[in-house]
Amino acid sequence: MHSSNKILEKVYGAKTDDDRRQAYNEWAQDYDRDVSGFGIQLPYVGASVFARHIELGTMPVLDAACGTGMHTLPLSMMGYSGFHGIDISDGMLTIAKARGCYASLTRMALGKPLDIADDHFAASYCIGALAHGHAPPESLNELIRVTRPGGLIIWSTHAHLNERTQPYQEFRHALTSDRQWIPIFETPPFVSMPDGDSAIQHAVYVYEVCS
Ligand SMILES: C[S@@+](CC[C@H](N)C(=O)[O-])C[C@H]1O[C@@H](n2cnc3c(N)ncnc32)[C@H](O)[C@@H]1O
């Protein structure tokens, strides 16, 4: 199944890092307005899961594919800090900077080795980016590498199953079988953009990195 929504199909259909960068650079100015119009649920669910599992004062936190920071602003309001955002799109990073809730913002692509030392982050947060046309399942290896043993990774992927989403589900279970991480919590699948494409479901997961 591909998305019936033209904007979503464009970003899910991106084939190269240049395509993704360009698609999000073009969308950046309108992104918050458009996804709000889609009834986006991910920022609220992601921030709620984060707040339930991550202690105040935990830092530094990697916000991988931070976008405009919609999902991090509520956490910043709650007193969380030390967020370091990375994203492939300068346009999205520019809007995130204006939100004022990041300690640093850097252009970096998931799916490639990250220019970050092993075990650097106390926790990692990656909402809305582990998806076809975005960051590949193998990006999870890098999130595990840069997160300290015992640290939590809070992330989302699609929960409706098709040929585009299945590899992400298979990869997360393989990482568990491999003892790379331990599952701590997952939300039920939910319709993440009811007014954008009601066939798209997401779930948010919490995993603890093994030593
Ligand atoms: C749907 S938005 C989600 C943004 C934000 N995490 C949120 O929840 O509001 C997806 C973001 O992933 C970024 N992105 C897509 N592919 C990427 C990649 N391979 N590496 C880094 N960022 C990527 C896009 O530029 C965009 O900002």
CATH class descriptor: Alpha Beta
Tally of separate helices: 7
Number of domains: 1
Averaged pLDDT: 96
**Biggest sheet: strands, sense, closure?**
8 strands, mixed
Sum up the overall morphology in one term. globular
Helix-strand pattern, N to C?
HHHEHEHEEHEHEEE
Task: Give the radius of gyration.
Answer: 16 Å
Seen as an oligomer or otherwise, the chain set is single chain
CATH-defined superfamily: Vaccinia Virus protein VP39
> Which molecules other than protein and nucleic acid are bound?
S-adenosylmethionine
List low-pLDDT spans: none
CATH architecture assignment: 3-Layer(aba) Sandwich
| Helix-and-strand structural type | alpha/beta
- Briefly note the CATH topology name: Rossmann fold
Q: What portion of the residues fall into strands of 2 or more residues?
A: 15-25%
Helix content: 25-40%
Whole-Å distance between the termini? 38 Å
Q: How would you describe this structure to a colleague?
A:
The protein is of the alpha/beta class. It has one domain (6-209): Rossmann fold (3-Layer(aba) Sandwich). 36% of the residues lie in helices and 25% in strands. Strands 1, 2, 3, 4, 5, 6, 7 and 8 form an 8-stranded mixed β-sheet that branches. Strand 2, helix 5 (90-99) and strand 3 (104-107) form a beta-alpha-beta unit. The N and C termini lie far apart (38 Å). The mean pLDDT is 96. The site of S-adenosylmethionine has 21 residues, from helix 2, helix 3 and strand 4.
